[in-house]
Amino acid sequence: MSAEDMVANMKDDKLLEIKSLRTHFHTPEGKVRAVDGVDLVIPRNTSVALVGESGSGKSVTSKSIMGLLPQPPAEITGEILYYQGDQSINLLELDPDGDEYSQIRGNEISMIFQDPMTSLNPVFTIGNQIMEVILRHTDLTKAEAKERAIELLDKVGIANPRQRVDEYPHQFSGGMRQRVMIAIGLACNPTLLIADEPTTAIDVTIQAGILELMKELQEEFKTSMLMISHDLGVVAQVADKVAVMYLGEVVEYGDVLDIFHSPQHPYTKALLKSIPILGQNRGREFEVIEGTVPDPFNIPVGCRFQTRCNNQCPSKYQNPPMIEVKPGHITKCWLYKGDES
Ligand SMILES: Nc1ncnc2c1ncn2[C@@H]1O[C@H](COP(=O)(O)OP(=O)(O)O)[C@@H](O)[C@H]1O
Ligand SMILES: [Mg+2]
Fold first, then answer.
1. Would you say the CB of residue 296 lies under 6 angstroms from ligand 1?
2. 220-236: per-residue pLDDT in tens?
3. Contacts of 272 (CB under 8 A, 6+ apart)
4. Superfamily grouping for domain 3-108+190-331
């Protein structure tokens, strides 16, 4: 069975299905294969985490879904199927600047970026910035949109929302600004919310609260979420499913419990060992993955993880296939023998 078939066979109710996605950049130095054959399903009402070290292609994957990469210099191939009932549309066949794509981008798929400082406009009130999204995508009046903005601020945990709706971004702390970004992301009631490292710029002490809030809202709004993070520890809190990405490929995908309790790919295992566990790492160094991510200009031939893998593998110069560990759990490693319990 091909990776595409394995992913396609998953019986979850699909919202988004990515097939053989390749996003390459043509640069003066050569071709950067940032995303190089990704297969991934985001089911309805589900939170999927995309994890991997910096440079693995996570943001490029999300920008490819959103149609935010100009071609050229990007060259995008494959399929990104967005399901509306029984019908699906291949987003890659739409004009990224056309009405249909804008419609989907505004009403159905929304994105929260990493840095709330640069995403909020300092000269407009918080309320105006939430209302702008509501007014653009609904038929509500200004007064109704403001009520909805207040309601959303309340939902994301801003105290005194009726008063604070008229304040400016500089009057909000970093954590509160990120909560506002979540409110804006949810303002049009999207079916898919993409959050690219939503807590990376935020103080660790308040990260957990924000993640918990996102999980609660994802369930309450019945939206799906693609949560991107370089930190597997972060996603444990919010993800139903995890896709582990390495050098432009998904190397393991499965339910969060399977990924944490029965990881199969050496890279997933290494990422898990590198999570510091509160109270358990005293006197014990948590492990750091050896070596560095290879340069995307010089991707190793065969298994891409070979330069950092501690295992002896006679087949490393051949590209490993996707292997089904069990339905819904797949890994891309020659060493998987199927004998794990
Ligand atoms: N516009 C671009 N032009 C050329 N290379 C890019 C561009 N955007 C990203 N890349 C490269 O693609 C690779 C993946 O980047 P990215 O998706 O941002 O990684 P991350 O997993 O950290 O989000 C990196 O090597 C990055 O340098
Ligand atoms: Mg990124």
1. yes
2. 888 999 999 888 888 88
3. 232, 260, 263
4. P-loop containing nucleotide triphosphate hydrolases (3.40.50.300)
